[in-house]
Design a protein that fits this description.
The structure is a single chain. The protein has 198 residues and is mainly alpha-helical. Helix 6 runs parallel beside helix 8.
Length: 198
């Protein structure tokens, strides 16, 4: 069960699906939802995951979840670079402010992750961070009923400790980071961007 939860609820899965949920609420139209959702999903999830899988297969880091802290530098930098390209496309394409807020909150989460991982030299749980960020963003975008996502978020947090990939403290800090930086960052950016004059 723990292995299943870790794989099915991995960060790339949340990041792949969340952009479409945000785009759907922002545009309320099929093709804009697909277009803007794809921009963020591909640059924030697919491209970084390709880098991670290739690096894992070549032995540059431990597995496709990059379980060794030292191996996280290249994947995090690659994710940041790819997301920067995606954000540029959003800006130039006139994307809805909600999509810019999502990309901004993801970028902020990457920065904080890198600060903890390499500044403090501590392996914070990115599984927990991404899952709990998605819970908050989902609730902000679609209403409090989406807080039901806390159940799978708790499941994946438990799985990381159960598998021995993280300590309880690393999962708790990751969860808090997700709520505050990922979720809270989205809410603040969305408020600021939608309040700005066009």
């Amino acid at each position: 069960m723990a292995r299943f939860a870790t794989e099915v609820l991995a960060p790339w899965v949340w990041v792949l699906t969340l952009p479409f949920a945000v785009a759907a609420a922002a545009t309320r139209a099929l093709w804009p939802t697909v277009a803007w959702g794809l921009v963020v999903a591909v640059t924030a999830s697919v491209v970084p995951m390709v880098v991670i899988v290739k690096g894992a297969r070549s032995g540059r880091w431990e597995g496709h979840h990059v379980t060794n802290r030292e191996g996280r530098l290249v994947p995090l930098v690659a994710a940041g670079g790819s997301l920067a390209v995606g954000t540029t496309v959003l800006v130039l394409g006139g994307a809805p402010p909600e999509m810019l807020a999502l990309a901004g909150s993801m970028f902020a989460s990457l920065v904080v992750s890198m600060a903890i991982t390499f500044g403090l030299k501590w392996k914070v749980s990115l599984h927990a961070a991404v899952a709990f960020a998605a819970v908050v963003v989902g609730a902000v975008v679609h209403g409090p009923w989406l807080l039901v996502l806390v159940v799978p978020a708790l499941l994946v947090a438990w799985s990381r400790v159960e598998l021995g990939d993280h300590t309880t403290a690393q999962v708790l800090v990751g969860s808090l980071m997700g709520v505050v930086v990922g979720g809270g960052g989205y809410a603040l950016l969305e408020l600021a961007l939608t309040a700005s004059p066009s």
